[in-house]
């Protein structure tokens, strides 16, 4: 995986983004600079009128073509064409490419015309072309580029189906942590990782009961024959090469159900206890030999009890022969974009990179918050006035709703929203989470929540320094106290300012349970660990996309 914007990007997605950017840039660069290589007196006169040489005009055309390629990539990303779950569908891919192409052409024309109107030819211009020629050439070239992109995307997905580019992962352990990691790899086919097996450190209960009853495990050939065609091979134990060949983990409608019960193909073929491998029962097949035989690219440690089961010498052999060895938490974080607090060891937070804070980054983040909040208020002020009038006319009560929330370092502050519920919403129930179809929500409030307009007054909280544009969403003190008693590390989300939007908000739907709070905390901790200016800007962009497409929380 590549690390971009302090976030892990699967190699196949990075390859797709870079290849499509290069392809589109090449088409735009050639199509919108060909006139410079023709012996046309009109082109020469226009270039001379702008006091440019042909080489200078070519440089400006190439730079402008690159800017339009980046603008087109934003249109593609906005239509979620880099989400492989969307892109693999031919119907969705075709429909979204049409939408992306149309929006990219409109955005490119608007950018070029604004650049000419505002005298920004040095930034975006194609010297030598009249305005009519530029419009025609730009539309034709953009449409040609998107047509080639569609063909390339079809070939790219064909290559993914034809050849397997995933890293083969062997997981040491078969407990809940190991199983959840394997399940995530099965459910995220675009992660670039493939779980080929889990090695349990102790016999499973199913094996014990089978052994006690005298039943022998099914032969490997029978298990392979019964596996679905799209199942991934999985080894659940170490044994002799003749005994362990393969086991089925289906990546179908219910991958988790098949994955959670690893299928041992030979009795007693688990990691033997004994710490360094000398005090316990020797393994039927050394771990390193198994890794080489199965062509494993990565070994992941997900053992529940490392003191008695960690094969140190074998892992050292793997590492010295160039086979990476990772902790389960590190790979889980890369694949999911969240930190699994339910099985997290404090040492992972202490000894790993991240959670860095400095006065310089705080100043930059504050400056960006002030700038974007001021711009946001200027843009949305007419809409806010209209919302205020609608709230006032719809139901009795104040226009703004003020409520105490927990901010940075656990300090309380007053958060402001447009009122979306009845003014007496909690008189009978007390503090409770809102539900999806909460009867307390007013008619206007339902619209405001769907469009996220009720959150706009929090821009004033951002200007006041109580909130940031990006960060964990602030909760009420009564909920914080209750959640902190049930969820480990919950108070760690308060080491930064709460945000108007956040990593959890763009990745997880609205929730009103402790389990939902746990899931969002994992995203919040990932954000806090990897916080950066570019990461914040990417979250703001995704939030705008979410609001426009009416998705997410």
Distance between the termini: 28 Å
Strand content: 5-15%
Q: Globular, elongated, flat, extended or rod-shaped: what is the shape?
A: globular
- Number of structurally distinct domains: 3
Overall average residue pLDDT: 82
DSSP strand tally: 12
Structure in words:
The chain is an alpha/beta fold. The protein has 3 domains: 2-162, no CATH class; 167-336, Rossmann fold; 359-549, no CATH class. 52% of the residues lie in helices and 9% in strands. The protein is built from 22 helices and 12 strands. The chain has a 4-stranded parallel β-sheet with strand order 4-3-7-8. The chain has a two-stranded antiparallel ribbon with strand order 1-2. The protein is globular, with a radius of gyration of 28 Å. The model is unreliable at 204-208, 214-270 and 272-283 (pLDDT under 50).
Task: Give the SSE map.
Layout lengths: L1 E3 L2 E3 L1 H21 L9 H9 L4 H25 L5 H4 L2 H28 L13 H32 L4 E6 L3 H12 L5 E7 L5 H8 L7 H7 L5 E2 L14 E2 L5 H5 L27 H7 L4 E4 L4 H4 L2 H9 L4 E3 H9 L9 H6 L7 H36 L5 E7 L5 E7 L24 H9 L6 H6 L4 E3 L6 H10 L12 E3 L1 H5 L6 H16 L3 H17 L4
Parallel strand pairs: 3-4, 3-7, 7-8, 11-12
Antiparallel strand pairs: 1-2, 5-6, 9-10
Helix pairs in contact: 1-3, 1-6, 3-5, 5-6, 7-14, 16-17
Question: Can you describe this structure in just a few lines?
Answer:
This protein is an alpha/beta fold and 553 residues long. It has 3 domains: 2-162, no CATH class; 167-336, Rossmann fold; 359-549, no CATH class.
Notable traits:
Rossmann fold, 12 strands, 3 domains, alpha/beta, 553 residues, four-stranded parallel sheet
